[in-house]
Amino acid sequence: MTRLQPVPHVSREGEWLSAALLLAFALALLSPGATFSRPVFVNLSAVAPEGTWGMALLGIATVRMIGLWVNGNWRRSPTLRFLTSAAGAGIWLSLSRLFLDDGFPGVNTGAFVYLAVGLFDLYAAGRSLADQGKNDQRYALARKGTA
User: Fold this and answer.
1) Which among 32, 40, 52, 118 has the fewest CB atoms less than 10 Å away?
2) What secondary structure letter does DSSP report for 86?
3) Which letter, b or e, does each residue of 37-67 get, where b requires 16 or more Cβ atoms within 10 Å of its Cβ?
């Protein structure tokens, strides 16, 4: 039986940071108080209530963190990383758009910050697809060697 060589560790700090920011955003929305009473959140409240946003973001952040932990410690699973990175990118880019149109003159800082995080998540999604391709090739070669 051919043993697979370990894949060199590729850091995922950007993905962890995005997941942590998503978790922090969710916890802020779920904490006591009416966060959506602030004018900057008017567009978010038009989409869904504060608790719905909070629970959805909490769920995605949790799944993403579990996927990153599993990916770093056991069998590599770039598919889960891709799905959660793509979801994160969609969330951050949507938040950026919603914060951009807050009704106040000038640009809201959140719009640019969330845009930057969304673009990094798009990059992470692309990198996870590349990782999946590498893993598929590795496992195909290993199966061929055992046949």
Assistant:
1) 32
2) H
3) eeebbebbbeeeebeebbeebbebbeebbeb
